[in-house]
Give the backbone structure.
Amino acid sequence: MCASFRRASRALTQLYDETLRPLGLRATQFTILQALSRAGEISQGELGRALAIDSTTLTRTLRIMVREGWIADRRGNDRRERLLRLAQDGRHQFNRALPLWEKAQVQLRHQLGDKRWHDLLKLTNEATNLTTKQGDLP
């Protein structure tokens, strides 16, 4: 199961990375921009949990995105807490990338068909929820 999900994930990531390449953006970065556009300000921990990204990978990706000026961050009340939000350049980058992302979505949905598209979304959400909220599967 793990190998199948990872293979599918790599293939899908390559499709979206290729789509976003003209903007100098990767699929993971787009996903973070999208999450921040919806959440407003959110802690790094909450973002990692919401996207099921481990802390090390998220920190490395955020460092690049802050350097690019796409994300603004500040310390929370607790010095260990880091609060994130989209910077103006990040909103601009997200808005530029969204039509390309949507084009890839439409293409993939057309190739899969509506029923399989919805079934796949449901299955991946269920698998993610089971493994992130309940720990090890029985």
